Amino acid sequence: MKKEKKSYIIRTYSAGVWFGHIKYLKGTVCILTNARRLWYWSGAASLSQLAIEGVKNPAECKFTVTITDPEGVYLPQVIEVLPCTQQAVENINNVPVWKK
Q: Is 99 inside any structural domain?
């Protein structure tokens, strides 16, 4: 059986909020793979609730495309790391991609 990677919500000081798999985390520097920026969410009062339950109003959320480059996304100034439940992961992954 293939072991699934744990997903996290990462909040940074200046790069916003991200969702994905941690490739590297040391101090306040993180490299996130399968990364998706969570720009706006509806139906979760906080990032803590988002990491546990996901969102209640997925059609109203603004989550970007997933960056799948294996090098990942470099995120400096990490200020919060929240592990996600499987329920939250499925919920976030089912939010439609927001783009113009």
A: no
